[in-house]
């Protein structure tokens, strides 16, 4: 085998591995029609009902109709919140299911898990570097170092479940460094 054929063969195998890795269903972003399920705790993998969402945040993942939970990436993790619908900005309302919002839990600064929730101020807080995001204003940055808002996932309440109705509002997590 000559050098050119070896390079083409190795490149084809590497490309095939990349494609297969990228197509792993548990790593795929939430898809239209997926339902939201508990990400952690006693009820992990159980469907979240709209009545389950109260003042505290619930960490969630999307689940496909075949039961596959899309939990293969932090970029798929969501903060599910109930907030005052009337206080939401017009943009925020476009993604909400009534008073329920699904917000990406991946910080746009360095990709840390945004795990803090301040109900009184309606802010999500990243514990790594202190970025704060205004949930009522489309998860806009209130305090950096993050410079971009968190992504919102459009959802609806449908037959006692919370269902995904579209794609994230923006890129998840930090911008890639090249």
Q: CATH superfamily membership, which one?
A: Rieske [2Fe-2S] iron-sulphur domain
Figure out the total of helices: 2
Could you give the count of β-strands? 11
- In round numbers, the mean pLDDT is 86
Helix content: 10-25%
Which descriptor suits the 3D outline? globular
What does this structure look like?
- By secondary structure, the protein is an alpha+beta fold.
- The protein has one domain (25-164): Rieske Iron-sulfur Protein, CATH 2.102.10.10.
- The chain has two helices and eleven strands, in the order H-E-E-E-H-E-E-E-E-E-E-E-E.
- The strands form three sheets. Strands 1-2-3-4-9 form a five-stranded antiparallel β-sheet, with no helix packed on it. A four-stranded antiparallel β-sheet has the order 5-6-7-8, with no helix packed on it.
- Strand 5 and strand 6 (123-125) form a beta hairpin.
- It is globular and about 40 Å long.
- The two termini are 35 Å apart.
- The model is unreliable at 3-21 (pLDDT under 50).
Summarize the SSE layout with pairings:
Elements: H1 3-22, E1 35-38, E2 58-63, E3 78-82, H2 90-95, E4 100-104, E5 116-118, E6 123-125, E7 132-134, E8 140-143, E9 152-153, E10 155-158, E11 161-164
Antiparallel strand pairs: 1-2, 2-3, 3-4, 4-9, 5-6, 6-7, 7-8, 10-11
Quick take:
By secondary structure, this protein is an alpha+beta fold. The chain has helices spanning 3-22, 90-95, and strands at residues 35-38, 58-63, 78-82, 100-104, 116-118, 123-125, 132-134, 140-143, 152-153, 155-158, 161-164. Helices cover 15% and strands 24% of the residues.
